[in-house]
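Q: How would the structure tokens look for this protein?
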Amino acid sequence: MPRAIAYHRPDSVEDVVALLDDESHRPLAGGTVLNGDDDPTPVTMVDLQGCGLEGIGDDAVDFA
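A: Here is the predicted structure in token form.
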């Protein structure tokens, strides 16, 4: 299981994108499995629930 060493709950999509630019940061949203593998690598969790993001589609021009 990845070992969370830090937690962020950004309030904008722009902040989410900036945080997830770091490969050690992982998105956390509803339905995320935190203990699904045996990888003990330390990660920083980025909670997506506070940024107002309603969804991402492959046909979207902008984030909504």
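The chain has a mean pLDDT of 80.

Residues 13-20 form the longest helix (8 residues).

Upvote if useful.
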